[in-house]
Amino acid sequence: MKDRPQLFDFIGVEAPSEAVVDQIKNIGDANCIYNEHLPLLDIEAAVRTGELVRGKYRVNRNNLNEGLVTTSFGFEIKVIGKADNNRAIMGDIVAVRLNDESKWLSNLHVNLQDEDATEGETRSNITIEDKKYSSMRDKILKENLCPTGSVAGIIKRDLRNLAGQVSRLLLKADHRYFVLVDPVDPRYPSTILAISDFEHLKDKKIAFCVDSWPDGIGFPIGHLVSIFGKADNLDTESKVILFEHNVETRTFSKAVLDCLPPEGEKYRISEQEIKKRQDLRDYPIVY
Fold first, then answer.
1. Fewer CB atoms inside 10 Å of the end CB: C or N, the chain?
2. Considering only CA atoms, which of 202, 178, 182, 200 is closest in space to residue 190?
3. Given CA atoms 252, 256, 257, 263 in this order, what sign does their dihedral have?
4. Do 172 and 235 reside in the same domain of the chain?
């Protein structure tokens, strides 16, 4: 590993030292003080009593500083501003503290939940929070209100791999380059990565994963997962598009390949088989 320091780029175990974190905090927009997240045990207790509301967090594509938390009670909670969004990331399961009703918004469309909007949020028994928020839902719908709140803690991170590109070098320290990577999907936050070779990666499209988000830094910290290739290259951008849409591109397994005709590339459809099919070969196909 010492002979190949670039391997540390991919394993995500070498967290920045406290001194490096302090240096990052002094870099303009990288300095942001968030509220500390509640411990998971405290969150679970507060959700059971109705003090906090559990839901799935997503980001408003038209306003990246605005989040929406989908609850299982038939209403959504709007979270406005960086501080109140408190390091929640698109897809996380979060715990939200509702604001006082005087801070709620009015005359906005309130979305009712569809079947998959509350994935993982169903419960088998009636709790205090059920009674409290079911009655609240009736008021929200009747008066056309939109509740607002703030993220008090993260119940479960959505630790997916993301595609992105290095946007700038933050600093060099501890024999590493600390860079900021902008994701292809703007609903996810720019992320700090520690890499060994800035020149090699600065013009590449990469895949990365978020590892943590300290409460004193404006960006999460992650690690490199893979390199797609040079940015603005057709093959590279095609790989990124497939990756972003979860299209499987791995080589087919032997079991799958064994289902193909043994002739391989020499296989030709017989005339008898062609007569059974609708022939579209003369139609212009755009793909």
1. C
2. 182
3. negative
4. yes
Q: Please tell me the least confidently modeled range out of 19-28, 50-59, 149-158.
A: 19-28
* Structure confidence by residue, pLDDT tens digits, 210-235: 999 988 888 999 999 999 999 999 99
User: Looking at the domain assignment, is residue 152 inside a domain?
Assistant: yes
- 256 CB-contact burial (10 Å; exposed 0-12 / middle 13-18 / buried 19+): exposed
Instruction: Round the average pLDDT of the chain to a whole number and report it.
Output: 84
Is pLDDT of 285 > 70? yes
Domain count, the chain: 2
Percent of the chain with pLDDT over 90: 51
> Do residues 209 and 180 both lie within one domain?
yes
Residue 228's domain comprises 5-31+159-244
Element (H, E) at 10: helix 8-11
145 in a structural domain: yes
The whole-number average pLDDT for the span 256-276 is 87
Residue 76 inside a domain? The answer is yes
Residue 227 lies in a domain: yes
166 beta partners:
181
What gap in Å lies between CA 161 and CA 53, rounded to an integer? 27
CATH number, domain containing residue 15: 2.40.50.700
b/e code 159-179 from CB counts within 10 Å (16+ = b): eeebbbbbeeebbeeeebbbb
Overall average pLDDT of the 20-48 stretch: 83
Dihedral through CA 197, CA 13, CA 173, CA 180, nearest 10? 60
Predicted confidence (pLDDT) at residue 244 exceeds the cutoff of 50: yes
